[in-house]
Amino acid sequence: MFTSQGPTLRELAVQALSSVEHGYDLLAPKFDRTPFRTPDAVLAPVARALGALGPYASGLDLCCGTGAGLGVLREVCTERAVGVDFSAGMLQVARESEPAASYVRADALALPFGPVFDLVVSFGAFGHFLPERQPELFAQVCRVLRPGGQFAFPLPAPARPGSWGYWAMLGFDGAMRVRNALWRPPFVMYYRTFRLGDVRRELDRAGFDVALRPLPELGERPDGSPRARLVVATRR
Questions:
Q1: Do 225 and 217 contact (CB within 8 A), yes or no?
Q2: In which element (H, E) is residue 82 found?
Q3: 97 pairs with which residues across the strands?
Q4: Tens-digit pLDDT profile for residues 52-83
Q5: 99 and 211 share a domain?
Q6: Which of 36, 136, 205, 230 is the most buried (most CB within 10 A)?
Q7: What is the DSSP letter of 109?
């Protein structure tokens, strides 16, 4: 699963027993050599879909990590691309991989911007927000978008009950709940708490009109439905 340049089992264990911020500071130098980095096979279809909706002037990568999603913003934004994350270690790596972007260290629940962005994207970060924090998160995104600006992110279809992926995510989330019940500080990361129905409802309450665009490059499920969609929420 990991390359020889990736983190060792001991390093992953130390990260998992740390806070979210400190854990990612520790993992940052080797993060791009793990399966946790959003793959180019996902980023490219998102960039093509947004290219058809844009162009946009300025874009923000929310919880940018090591900067994988900033390449998407560079493709679809004509003026500037900004990455925000609360891990100093991840931002340091991002600056090296995407030096043309700007970076701000901040909490996604307290964004230090006014309504200056036309596009906000995010990749793979929503598991770090418990469902009760989603209204707060979406309100922050709405606040930093200009009217008519868009919040876009890919969302995979849920794993079929009984499939390998279903049991893997169920087991991971169960292990994290046990870990957080027994150990402090908590490490919030769950795979099954970001459900489309709940997300659409909370985005609507935050002031967004929500549309779904299939990402056909990522394939179809046996019933013909897409394996992943791009959620495009437009600020009213």
A1: no
A2: strand 77-85
A3: none
A4: 998 999 999 999 999 999 999 999 999 999 99
A5: yes
A6: 230
A7: T
